[in-house]
Write a structure and sequence with these properties.
Elements: E1 5-12, E2 15-22, H1 25-28, E3 36-43, H2 54-72, E4 77-84, E5 87-94, H3 98-112, E6 117-122, H4 127-133, H5 137-154, E7 163-171, H6 174-186, E8 190-196, E9 204-212, H7 216-232, E10 236-241
Antiparallel strand pairs: 1-2, 2-4, 3-5, 3-6, 4-5, 7-9, 7-10, 8-9
Helix pairs in contact: 2-3, 5-7
Length: 250
């Protein structure tokens, strides 16, 4: 089975960074005897966004593929990468010693004519993966927002037309749901209803909406506030949706 990968943007030490991480390792690393962390770093010429231009990206991906293949052959696992401030850092968990890793990195650097810097360190707790690469709850919320927005844009929506953006939050009690509905109304949302299931273990759902342009900054602000308030009241934000509006042709 292939590893599942995901990505998100964040800030590290005040700089914009892009992280790609191996989601599959979250459940596997504690059971693997890979106590050493190998970092391999490459430079690139950042564009106006801080990202590598296409020519540099191709070169970086070629090095990444070679390293992953060689290190996988000796039992290593590729954990992820961080791209920021003109540097891309690749993270691998390995069982080999530093000299073995150095020989592999040196061989690839010579073959691809790519200057590579490396560092090996002990990380038996896999702290770099869990604390740096793996996103926290807030970062996962932003990832979920962007996934929906990206899908809308792929379907021809330019996100500039106002439309109802519909949310749902769930709670274990009717009292919690009603308190949240009051908060939603006070913050400019139209509450369409509070729906209570008939079973003993069913949740209470609050459905509410706001007419707006579904632009990333505005969506992130709303989902952050909704997730926080729902959590404070003992519930959770289940997500959002919005109808497509195809961009007008000139």
């Amino acid at each position: 089975m292939q590893d599942q990968w995901n990505a998100y943007a964040c800030e590290i030490s005040g700089h914009r960074a892009w992280i790609v991480f191996n989601e599959t390792l979250a459940g596997e690393l504690p059971h693997l005897d890979l106590p050493n962390l190998l970092r391999v770093q490459m430079e690139y010429a950042p564009d106006e966004r801080g990202r590598p231009p296409s020519a540099d990206e191709e070169r970086l991906l070629e090095v990444e593929a070679e390293l992953e293949e060689w290190l996988a052959a000796i039992g290593g696992r590729f954990a992820g990468q961080v791209t920021a401030t003109g540097l891309r850092t690749l993270f691998f968990y390995v069982a080999c010693n530093e000299e073995e890793a150095r020989q592999i990195v040196h061989r690839i650097a010579l073959r691809l004519k790519a200057p590579l810097a490396m560092r090996m360190e002990a990380d038996a707790r896999h702290a770099i993966y869990y604390e740096l690469l793996l996103p926290d709850e807030e970062e996962r919320r932003v990832m979920a927002d962007l996934e929906i927005l990206d899908a809308m844009m792929r379907d021809g929506d330019d996100l500039q037309t106002p439309r109802p953006v519909c949310h749902e939050a769930s709670f274990t009690t009717h009292q919690q749901a009603m308190a949240f509905a009051d908060w939603a109304r006070q913050n400019g949302f139209l509450v369409s209803g509070v729906h209570t299931g008939k079973g003993a273990n069913d949740t209470c759902a609050v459905r509410f909406q706001r007419t707006m342009r579904p632009e990333p900054r505005a969506i992130h602000a709303d989902t952050a506030a909704i997730a926080y308030m729902a959590g404070q009241l003992g519930g959770r934000h289940e997500g959002w949706r919005a109808p497509l509006r195809e961009r007008r042709r000139a």
